[in-house]
Amino acid sequence: MTDDLQIPRHEEGGTFCVAALYHFAAFPRFESFREPLLALCKAQGIMGTLLIAREGINGTVAGTDAGIAAMLAFLRAQPEFANLEHKESRASKMPFLRMKVKLKKEIVTMGVEDIDPNKIVGTYVDPKDWNELISDPDTILIDTRNDYETAIGIFRGAVDPNTKTFREFPDWVKNNPGLHNKPKIAMYCTGGIRCEKATAFMKQQGFEDVYHLKGGILKYLENVPEEESLWDGACFVFDERVSVTHGLKEGNHLLCHACRHPITQEDLASPHYEPGVSCPNCYETRTQADRDRYRQRQKQIALAKERGEKHIGS
């Protein structure tokens, strides 16, 4: 293996390297890039999901250190992604079941036309400077993630929009004139992509002093010591680890395989919790027929486990 692949350093905490990445760039050839990228990832034994669109690339994948290094080198060899940055964490087992490269209209779906972070965006703030900004009484701190994510962790003092999807965020901003009451707006998300697009939207709406956490919560938890941290709880991640905590250590949350929401210790004690079938977050929104179908799936998962196999729906 050549030095230019820059193989990530193997750290304590897991066999697999998990790479979260995104990059906004004009990428009109995204459709023809799908097959070469998918072939490279499969050849390297990488699993996860990458989204490519006219506006760039976004996704999270996992593999060996050498495999991830090869994929990153391949991406950065493309002129559009030469400056692509990524974040790494570790997983004790492969957190994905398959490899997918999807063609999309947007790499993160806001549903607003003419939002281009390549042209207008907020001011990046390094994790080491974040505490000072969000402790400023002239700052409104906004979490741009969805309600199931904020339920298990959030920065102290942050405003939670309680959105179900990122598409709801623009309307939430327009319906909250109080956001103009303070001169500074600080925003954050898991890895940086949603708040980068959100700051572009805020600037378009006339907000001037708009800031966002560079590298997102993941970079903050990696770089800021726990004793200095203003983060409470765990950070939801979109893979089978479910959550990570300070130092990017794997959290102790489970996932409801009926609705994909994280499950807390309180949820486990609920009469509406049944492994793989329901939890308090989805019990009222699923029918009895749904739950019967989920029970059959769980039965197949259990049988596959007895045979020493992994069921694709587990």
Structure description:
There is one protein chain. Helix content is 28%, strand content 22%. With 314 residues, it is an alpha/beta fold. The model is unreliable at 1-12 (pLDDT under 50). Strands 4-1-3-2-5 form a five-stranded mixed beta sheet. It has a four-stranded parallel beta sheet with strand order 6-10-9-7. The protein folds into three domains: 16-103, Alpha-Beta Plaits (2-Layer Sandwich), CATH 3.30.70.100; 123-233, Rhodanese-like domain (Oxidized Rhodanese, domain 1, 3-Layer(aba) Sandwich); 253-313, no CATH class. It is built from nine helices and 15 strands.
List keywords for this structure.
single chain; 314 residues; alpha/beta; Alpha-Beta Plaits; Oxidized Rhodanese, domain 1; 3 domains; 5-stranded mixed sheet; 4-stranded parallel sheet; 15 strands; 22% strand; disordered N terminus
Largest β sheet strand count, sense and barrel closure = 5 strands, mixed
Strand order of the biggest β-sheet: 4-1-3-2-5
Described by the principal axes of the CA atoms, the overall outline is globular
- Let me know the number of strands: 15
The chain-level mean pLDDT equals 91
Binned strand content: 15-25%
